[in-house]
Amino acid sequence: MQQVVRALGVASALALGPILAALAQEPFVPALPGQGRPVDLAATTARRQRLMDRLGDAVVLIPAAHERDIEAYGDYPQDTDFRQHNAFFYFTMLEQQDAWLVLLARAGGPDSAVLLLPERDLRRERWVGVRIGPGEDAARLTGIPVVLGVGKLDSVVAAAQARGAPLWLQLDPTTQGERLFQRLRADSARVAIRSLRPIVDSMRLVKDAQEIAALRRAVQLSAEAHADLMREAREGMWEYELEAIIEAGFRRRGADRLGYPSIVGSGINGTTLHYMAGRRRTQPGDLVVVDAAGEYAQYTADVTRTFPISGRFTPRQRAIYDLVLATQQAAMDSVRPGITMGRLGQLARDYMRARSGDLCGPETCVQYYIHGLSHWIGMDVHDVGPYGLPLAPGMVFTIEPGIYLPAESFGVRIEDCVLVTETGYELLSGAAPRRAEEVERLMAEQRGGDGQRQRSR
Description:
By secondary structure, the chain is an alpha+beta fold.
């Protein structure tokens, strides 16, 4: 491949995509250096082609993320994790730093794709691990026919600009510092510059089979870790101990990282929606609200459960819990293609209002339900997409009603992930108990085992 590129030159090589498209039809590769997870070549090839089909004549530039330099920016070394830019990952599934993807779409001719990778630095790899570099192996592993060194980026862009087609740039907060983008935008009088982000966001809203599989894994491991926590939680534990248990459960099941900072609030802290401190010691009779999930293959879950630290709800806690759960179920049962999130939110509030009775006083419990019902999930915990669109199969979002009673020092939130199907929905997070009796039964089973072990000593 590289011999062909050198013989023809960069500009000619850009037209080789259709001729070499067979490379993109290879089955899953076993692994990528330093990554350990295969690229779904069929999925990424299809995504790139769908994008080019939508654009017509166009040149697309999508950068990868850069490795953080904690010394240069005075950042804290406790958080050094590299995470790929979502758009670059969506079209390549590569966790490679400092790379570029260039797509050349033609309305009346063959489309092509070029991947530009940093040259390998064997001395640096002794510190950071093996990297994939430009060459024939990279083309085989990524399904992108032309793979050049990133030093050729200016030549590739210049050849692309010569076509006179609009330049589509992935403009978002993660790429605002890219010098190439700054230079191109300053020269926009010569070639039209357009933002790619709205189109990519619209593509990401409906998940394909690979994305759904990744989300299933992320949600399943998160829900199972919530069940772990219910089994192990005990009166007197500190909130940070509970947080450690559930986060260990994520990683033990293969999560790459947290989907978002974990929220573990006991007692009155459970009434603070984004409570983060984690420094309170639980007391007998507390409810604990745990909003935490793991990320797998760049896709994150979002799951919340509320449980009694003592193992059983008080009658008052149970009444509020059951109302929140019934409200959630009423909204969930209304999920179907064509309905909107806004309508689901209104149905949930109407249901809670009609069934509050005197639980929360004359104004009903809706006054203590202080947030929205739903949000998209995907590569971000609050994923891209407008909220006024009718639901369609392949969309994935949360349903999370709650009631928060600071005067009584407890709150209840139940949050689940649902996938829209052709006929309704699929509950993805069912591995974490939802019904109050299921929560109590799970906690009682483990505690019963503790008691048996104590008597046997």
